[in-house]
C-alpha cells in the first residue's frame, strides 16, 4: 500500500473515531437530559401526589372533626333533654305530693275558678279526684260561683263530681252540655307550659 493511501485511510479512521466520539457524547448528553427530565417530572408528580395526599388527609381530618363535633352536640342535646324530662317528672311528682299539702285547697279553688271563667260560666260540671271534695266546702263553692259569675257576667252553678281519673291533682271544668271544657289537671297544666318553661330550665341548669 502506498504511503499516500495509508495517510488517506488514517485520516478516514481518525474522522470516524472523532465522529464516533461525537455521537457517543451527543448520545450521553441526550441520555442525561432525558434522565434529568424524567427525574424532574417524577419529582413534580411526587410533589403533586404528596400535595394531593395532604389535601385529602386534611379533608378527611375535617370530616372526622366535623362528625365528632356533630355527634358531641347531638349527645349533649340528648343528655340535656333527658335531664329536662327528669326535672319535669320530678315536678309532676311534687305536684302529686301537693295534694297532701295545706296549700292544695287554695290551688284547687283557683284552678276551678280559672276553668269556670274559661268555659264561660253557667251550669258547670267540675270533675275532681275522689277525696278532693273535702277541700271545697259549701261556702267555698258559693264564693267560686260568685267569682266566675262576676267575671263572665253569667249566673254560675257548680256541680262537683268525683269522676276525675288518671290525674295527679287539679280539675277538669266543663259545661254541663259538654260543649266546652277546660283541662286544669296538674299534668295538663304542666304540659301546656312545657314549651315556655323548657328554655328557662335549660338556662338555669346549663349556663354556658
From TrEMBL:
Keyword terms: Ion transport, Transport
One term under GO cellular component: proton-transporting two-sector ATPase complex, catalytic domain
Family matches, as InterPro entries: ATPase_E_C, ATPase_V1_Esu
Keyword Transport part of the UniProt annotation: yes
Compositional bias segments (type: Basic and acidic residues): 40-59
The family this protein is said to belong to: Belongs to the V-ATPase E subunit family.
Name listed for the protein in its UniProt record: ATPase, V1/A1 complex, subunit E
Organism: uncultured organism
